[in-house]
Amino acid sequence: MRVVILGSGRGSNAEALCIAQQEGRLGRARVVAIFADRPEAGILALGPRFGVDARYLDPAPFKTKLEGEGELRYIEAVRACAPDLVVLAGFMRVVKPGFLQAFAGKVINLHPSLLPSFPGLDGIGQAFRHGVKITGCTVHHVIPAIDAGPIIDQAAVRVEPTDTLESLAQKIHAAEHRLLVEVVARLSQDAR
Ligand code: GAR
Predict the structure, then answer these.
(1) 102 Cα: distance to centroid of ligand 1 (angstroms)
(2) pLDDT of 151 over the 80 cut
(3) Could you tell me which residues come within 8 angstroms of residue 144 by beta carbon, excluding any fewer than 6 positions away?
(4) What's the pTM?
(5) pLDDT confidence of 103, banded at 50, 70, 90?
(6) Nearest residue by C-alpha to atom 12 in ligand 1
(7) From start to end of 37-133, where are the E strands?
(8) Atom of ligand 1 nearest to the CA of 43
(9) pLDDT for 192 beyond 70
(10) CATH code of the domain containing 101
């Protein structure tokens, strides 16, 4: 199963996928390319480290969504990878119907809360400030509405009275790394 990852940030979830693949824990999935919408994104350093094609792709003209020329550039580059699965791993940009139709049913997203609670930006901070006692992370199919789409799986994280925003973020990131690897491995087995 050919996997393409899109990201904007440090890429710890993409790293978890690459490490799992190296250690034989990613089923039949293989990361074939990583694309970032910011040239300075840490996720791009995974390319040379894991021998994967990793490139900045200009998302212009829009700042927060992928549409117009930028969307066409992404569709072309991702299509050239012939992906079976496109993973949005910290891709902080709204993906529009054009891209979703090009890869229908193949685009999944990771979000750091138990959706449908706390969609959008800063899911961890939103949950922490709300004072929930259980939060977590979600992997879901992507539809045009933000952080909606059928849920594939979730992992719960308990918020302890001693937790700070930073300690909670660490726990959620660790849960995300495990969940995303499990989901991708499982999807690769189902795709047999
Ligand atoms: C992750 O926590 C992911 O859930 C979040 O961005 C982070 C990326 O971290 N995504 C969203 O908030 C999407 N709405 P990473 O770059 O270290 O993988």
Answers:
(1) 23
(2) yes
(3) 96, 97, 100
(4) 0.96
(5) very high
(6) 111
(7) 53-56, 65-66, 85-88, 94-95, 107-111
(8) 16
(9) no
(10) 3.40.50.170
